[in-house]
Write a structure and sequence with these properties.
Layout: H1 21-30, H2 33-41, H3 51-62, H4 73-77, H5 82-85, H6 97-110, H7 112-126, E1 134-142, E2 155-156, H8 163-170, E3 172-173, E4 194-202, E5 208-215, H9 221-224
Antiparallel strand pairs: 1-4, 2-3, 4-5
């Protein structure tokens, strides 16, 4: 019996490169990042792209060979198979700066350190990373220029909440911001303002488990406890 011959119309074939982003997308899916983000900050009825898929898109853009700034974000995904890498129904034009901005607001309100911890613990469980021992340290990052020490108070309201719940439950105030100020400089630039990054890694494989930014004058004992 002869094998059937399949004729392909080259005009109907579209070729797109995924480079290393296929591996990145696979790891994101393996640790369940999309589902975790959606569970933590919630989804809105009728939205075309969930918060979790938007975060996945940000990761792919950030780890691409040539990333794009926020206002050109959608253009980056026009050159790669967007639905294949991010999720069914996700089109480049849906990943606009308004959508990403709203998602980042929600992430900030929830608390980035909390979100990072939940994702890291889930990844450690998925890949059997032992957490019986850990390493902790902090680093100071100096900055140049002037920085406002106080941000305006921001209130986010849920327009879909019942009127009786809007005042009590739907209004969420912006979390307290860190202070970029002078402090003990680990990189020997006491003349410059700084902020602190606090990090805890697993003893098994040095996998980051906890990550948090802090004010430039914060001491380690306030986060890690007395030495």
């Amino acid at each position: 019996m002869e094998n059937p011959v399949v004729m392909l119309n080259l005009k109907e074939i579209q070729i797109q490169n995924i480079d290393h982003l296929g591996i990145v997308a696979g790891m994101v899916d393996a640790i369940g990042l999309v589902e975790i983000i959606n569970d933590l900050i919630g989804e809105e009825k009728g939205e075309k792209v969930s918060p979790g898929h938007a975060v996945k898109a940000m990761i792919l853009n950030g780890l691409g060979f040539v990333s794009q700034p926020l206002y050109m974000f959608a253009k980056f995904f026009e050159t790669i198979p967007c639905e294949h890498l991010i999720g069914a129904g996700v089109k480049p034009e849906y990943l606009n700066d308004d959508k990403l901005g709203r998602v980042m607001d929600k992430l900030f309100i929830k608390g980035l350190d909390t979100i990072f911890l939940v994702i890291a613990l889930n990844a450690a469980k998925k890949f059997n990373v032992s957490l019986s021992s850990s390493h902790l340290d902090s680093s100071s990052i100096h900055v140049h220029g002037e920085y406002k020490s106080i941000l305006p108070e921001v209130i986010f309201e849920n327009p879909t909440a019942p009127e009786t719940e809007k005042i009590e439950e739907s209004a969420k105030k912006c979390p307290k911001q860190i202070s970029i100020t002078h402090g003990y400089s680990r990189d020997h630039r006491p003349d410059l303002k700084q902020f602190i990054i606090e990090l805890i890694c697993s003893g098994d494989g040095d996998i980051p488990i906890f990550l948090k930014s802090a004010s430039g004058n914060q001491v380690d004992s306030s986060c890690f406890g007395p030495g």
